[in-house]
C-alpha cells in the first residue's frame, strides 16, 4: 500500500476536483468493462525459409516461407500446444499474421507459412493436393515434433491443431484425414467437394452436369496466375530447363512450349492450368477436372477424420455455401467424432462485423482450450447462426441477432408455402447469357451484401411466384425445397432459382445473395408433358417476419455462372404447395450490447452516488480539520507526543509513545511483534485515529485527510505494481493517479536516488525481488516528500541488495528530508540508521542516536596469532576480573568485570601471545534483547 498519505491529500482537494476525478474513474471503469480489456501474453516471431519434401513419395524438395510465433510462456520446461495456421487462396503467411499473434498470445505456438506457389514459397499451386500441399503441411508437423517448446503426445507426435479459412480450411480437413497426429481442427468457410462447389447442380445431378461458377473460378485463377516466381530454381522447373554454371538458366535447355504456358498459367501446376482453361472456354466440366477437384476435396477423407472438429461457415458466401459445411459435418459425425457447427454473418461475399468476428473467435478459443490443451470445459454441441434484426436507431443500419439450436443438424418442422401464379410462364435465355441477372458480386465484399442481396432480375428472363402473406414469423435454418417443371425447344435448360423475402412495402431481399443453379436435360418441347423435379434451394439462416411474404424467382441467366450460349425460350412451372421451408424453433442469445448497457448504467449510477458521498465527506472533513501549527514542532518532519491507541475490545496497542524524527536523520523503529509498530505507522499515515496524544508533521496535527499528509511518502504492505508495464510506466501511472502535475513528480531525482538505472525501462515481471523493492521505494519517493516512511524495505533481499538499499536511504536523507524505517533486521538497522526508537508493549523504552543506545559494553572480541589461542585462553582465565572466556569463530569473546582492556592486552603480551586486534563486542541486538527481554 504505497503512499497512503497521497490518498489523504487527494481527499481534501477542492470539491470540483473530487467530482471530476470520480467521474473520470467511473467512466474509465465502465469503458474497461464495455470494451473488455485486451488480454494476451508477449509473443516473439521468427521468419525462416524451410526446405520440406513432398510429392507422391515425399521426396521432392521445396522451400516454404515460414514464420513461427512463440508465446513467452512456452519453454522447454513448460511446452505449449501448437497450431498450424493456413491462409486462404491468393494470400500468404502475412494474411494470417494478426490471427497468429492473437492465438500465440493465448499460449499456443503458432506455425504459419506461405503455401506453395504463393508469396516467397517455391513450387506450383496444386490446389490442396494430398501429394503436395497436404504433404507440405505434414512436413511442418514433423518440424513441430522436433521443437522442445512444443508439447508432445509421443515421440514425433506434437500436440497440434490445424486451423484455416477457405483454402486453408480445406487443408486442415485434408491434413486431419491424412495425418492422425492432428488433435483437433477448426476449418472456416471452406468446401466439402470442390467439384460440386464450382459445378453445382441443385437437383442432385452432380458436377458432370453442373453449371460452371465462372466468376468465382475466374477470380481464383486470376489471383494466382499472374504471381511471380520466387527463385531461379522454380523458374527452371516451370520451364523444363536446367540451371547454368552461373546460377542462371541454360537457354538451350528451355522448352519453348512452356514459355507460353508460364505466361498464361503463372504459378499454377501446368496440367491443372490446362484443365481450367478448357473448362473456362467451354463452360462445361470434364471428367479430368472433376477428378482433379475431387482429389483436393475433404469429402474423400471424412471417414478418416477422428479429430474433434469445429466447422465455421459464412451465411454470405456464394463460393462455398452453407451446404458445404453441412456435408462436412454429417460426414465427420458419422464416425462418432465430436463436431460443432456455427454459421455467422460473413463469408467470401461479405466481411463479418467486429461483433461477429469476436463471437467466432471466442467459439474457436473455447474449442482449442478443451480439445487441444485440456484446460477448458467441454464445449456444447449447440448449433448457432445469425439473422438480420431490426434497424439500428443509432446509424440506421440493420442489426443482427444470434440464435442457437440444441444440435446439428437441427430438427426441422417443414413449413409449406402456398404460392400464386403456379401456371406455366415463358422465360427467355438471352444470346451468350447477356444481359444476365445479378444474385451476387463475387469478390466485392460489402458491396455484395448491401447491393446484390436485393437481387437484379432482367425482365422477360424470369418467372415470379409469390407466396401469401405470413401470419406469423418463420425461422428457417436449412435448405428449402420446391418442385418445378420446365420445357425447352433444345431439350436442355439452365435455370437459376432464388427465394426472396418481401416486406409489407414490397422491398425484396435475397438472403445471403444465394441462388440455386439447375441444368435440366432431356426436356420436352411443351410443358404439359414435362416431369416435376425437386430443386434444393440454398441453405439459409433467416427469419421471415410476420406480415412478409416469400417470392420464388426462376431466371435463365446469372452474372456469376456460365449458361447456354444459344438463345431460347423456355417454359417453367411450379407445383402447387410444394415450396417447403425448414422451419426451426431457435433460442435467441441475449445481446451482449444490451447486457453491458445496463451494466454501464449501473456503474454510472454508482459513480453518481459516490460523487455525492465524496462531496459530503470532503465538506465535513474540511469543516473539522485542525489547521493550526505547533511552532515548537514546525521544523521537525515528525513529532510523536504521548501517543495512545485503544481498540473497542479493550486491547491497548499503543500506550504513551513519544519520539521525534529530525531533518537528515534515518530513524529505525524497532520492537518485537505486537509492540505497536504497525499501529503507530497507520496512525502516522492518517489511516486510523489515535485515542490520545498527537502526531505532528512539520507542526501540523495528523488526522485522516490532513493536507500535510502530502509531504509524506510511504511504502507499506506491498507496492501494488503492474507486472505487464515497465518500471517507468508504473511510476508515471502512479503519479497520474495522485492528480498532481507531472513536473512536480521529480521523477529523475527519485530514479537517481533509487539507483534503478536502465532496468526502469524493463517490464516489472522481469524484475528480481530487489529490483521490485527499489522500484517501490522510488514510487514512494516521487515528488521527494519531506518524510519517507518504509516498512521492512530490505525484506526478501540478499546481502548485496541490502547494501545497495543502505546507500539509497542514506542518499535520500539530505536537504532537510528524513526517513523512518520499521524493520526486524537489527543488524541492518544498526548499519543504515542514524537513530533508533525501541518500542515494547506499546511504549517507548529507548530512543536516541545508535552510538549512544549501544554505548560501551562489557564484552570484547580478542583476535590472536595463529597457534596462540590455547595460551591466550590459559592466560586470560588466570586473570582476576575476567568472568568468562569462550572461543568464537573470529577469535575469543571475553566478558570483563572490573578490568580494563589495556590490562587484557598487557597480560596476553606478557604470556608471549601475539595480539592482533581487540574490539568492543556490544551490538544493537544485545541492547534490544536487554530492553525487551522481559517480554521475550
Characterise this structure.
The N terminus is likely disordered. An 8-stranded mixed beta sheet has the order 1-2-4-3-7-8-9-10, sandwiched between helices. Strands 32-33-34-29-35-36 form a 6-stranded mixed beta sheet, with helices on both faces. Strands 15, 18, 19, 20 and 23 form a 5-stranded antiparallel beta sheet that branches. The protein contains 25 helices and 40 strands. The chain has 936 residues and is α+β, with helices and mostly antiparallel strands. The protein folds into 4 domains: 221 residues, Rossmann fold (3-Layer(aba) Sandwich), CATH 3.40.50.1820; 175 residues, Galactose-binding domain-like (Jelly Rolls), CATH 2.60.120; 223 residues, P-loop containing nucleotide triphosphate hydrolases (Rossmann fold), CATH 3.40.50.300; 63 residues, 2-Layer Sandwich (Alpha-Beta Plaits). Belongs to the ABC transporter superfamily. Keywords: ATP-binding, Hydrolase, Membrane, Nucleotide-binding, Transmembrane, Transmembrane helix, Transport. InterPro entries: AAA+_ATPase, AB_hydrolase_fold, ABC_transporter-like_ATP-bd, ABC_transporter-like_CS, CocE/Ser_esterase, Galactose-bd-like_sf, P-loop_NTPase, Xaa-Pro-like_dom. This is Putative hydrolase, CocE/NonD family.
Name the features.
disordered N terminus, six-stranded mixed sheet, 936 residues, 25 helices, elongated, alpha+beta, Jelly Rolls
